[in-house]
Amino acid sequence: MARFSMVLVGAVCLTISVFSHTTTAQLSRNFYSKTCSNVEQIVENVVNKKVKQTFVTIPATLRLFFHDCFVNGCDASVMIQSTPKNKAEKDHSDNVSLAGDGFDVVIQAKKALDATPHCRNKVSCADILTLATRDVVVAAGGPSYEVELGRFDGLVSTASSVKGNLPGPSDNVDKLNTLFKKNKLTQEDMIALSTAHTFGFAHCGKVFNRIYNFNRTISVDPTLNKAYAKEIQMACPKNVDPRIAIHMDPVTPKKFDNIYFKNLQQGKGLFTSDQVLFTDSRSRPTVDAWARNSQAFNRAFVTAMTKLGRIGVKNSHNGNIRRDCGAFNYY
């Protein structure tokens, strides 16, 4: 997760704020009961098949969902391909590292749904991504939870809307809290959602500053576990291609669990934005509590994911059901 806000300007912002209450109210767990009652099973089958093909599907899908919801809301606008006349969200520098397997699982699920006559063009790409995200969490050993459905796909996707709305690897707790608060998410939500870093990969270029150039007098970040710092240096030597990938979680890199918090207690948070959750006295009690109690963490994660899925939801007035998840409908 590169970390996440919804910033819209002018008339667009006004339009969405007018529908903010309506769009949240439209979400329900049985939204497709009369149109595509087996939507969840169809999506789950596609996800499980894709995960068997490549584990990267799991962190890629979860990260894609975060990046979508934090820019203009959960409306699949991050799926849109750029055109000669429009540079879309996915081509902003903060999104170019989003792995293709996350996009692909949504596209494959869309195809599977469209191959089912009563589901054809009935389910939004935004809802497919939301369901697939739940399913990859479960596939990695995380908690299962009910998903609210009823999102429509967004009609706008611009790279310019991304800037400043996704948390960065060097952010402190103040900056993280500010970004999350914009999306009506609490500090506890922020800490819970940060566990997207319990699996998946990061690029060496994102951690060079912590292991080689921390400041003018210290080369290695003193909050970083010394042995872990050496491990990262071995995986990311000074002259290595900055795109080389390393595990986010050095202990259980393919499992969704609360080891993430135990790692932070030991100084093994890969990003500054991870480790500050333990070094900052405001967030440390939550880290300690969830390191001890995985069930409490799982409950908090489900709550945070549900709230995340409500951000900036579109309805039939300011959205539609895309025929192609990567392109706007043109009539």
UniProtKB/TrEMBL annotation:
Locations listed in the record: Secreted
One Gene Ontology biological process: hydrogen peroxide catabolic process
Signal sequence residues: 1-25
Binding site for heme b: 197
Disulfide feature: 36-119, 69-74, 125-325, 204-236
Main location: secreted
GO annotations of cellular component type: extracellular region
Annotated active site: 67 (proton acceptor)
Swiss-Prot/TrEMBL catalytic activity: 2 a phenolic donor + H2O2 = 2 a phenolic radical donor + 2 H2O
Cofactor(s) needed for function: heme b; Ca(2+)
Keywords, comma-separated and alphabetical: Calcium, Disulfide bond, Heme, Hydrogen peroxide, Iron, Metal-binding, Oxidoreductase, Peroxidase, Secreted, Signal
SUPFAM superfamilies in the cross-refs: Heme-dependent peroxidases (SSF48113)
Residues that bind Ca(2+) 1: 68, 71, 73, 75, 77, 89
Binding site for substrate: 167
Protein name, entry field: Peroxidase
Source organism of the structure: Arabis nemorensis
